[in-house]
Amino acid sequence: MCKTLKIARSTLYYKEKPRTVDAKLGNAVIKEFYGNRKVFGRRKLKVVSANRNIRISERKISKIMKKYSMVSKYTIRTEIDLRNINIFHTDRGSEFKNLVIEQILEAFEIERSLSAKGTPYDNAVAEAMYSIIKTEFVFGENYDNISHFKREWFDYANWYNNRRPHGSLDYLTPFEWHNLS
Questions:
Q1: CA angle 30, 33, 35 (to 5 degrees)
Q2: Is 57's pLDDT higher than 80?
């Protein structure tokens, strides 16, 4: 009959199969995501999965993350109440010397703090590291006291150097990279 009507047999007989996520893969992705401080996105999850001999595509990882509502800290926007800020520290870059920023700082009575000229803390590497620490370690966390903070800081530094793959190091950890040299 399909030949007579000149239609493909699949038009008549095709039944879509429900797409399921392999539970083992899903569990592996969930374990890596939460075991790495909810910081990794699909790219790093793919790399760490491959290091554990788990073959999975970035697309499948994205589907798993969406299914289980897993969102990397890097994609979460944080809203900050400017009334709770006392000091705004910047380097001496020209992007921070504009009228709008001056007006905002004045309106919210925020004190401006500028680094001294030639201070080594104003370089791109240090600023990138500060950004990473704020995103991965500070945002969304509460520390009960200084000893709790110190324990968490030690744990973070250990994780950062021994477990977190760095894109700039060909997705090796700093420890692995150092041992190659």
A1: 100
A2: yes
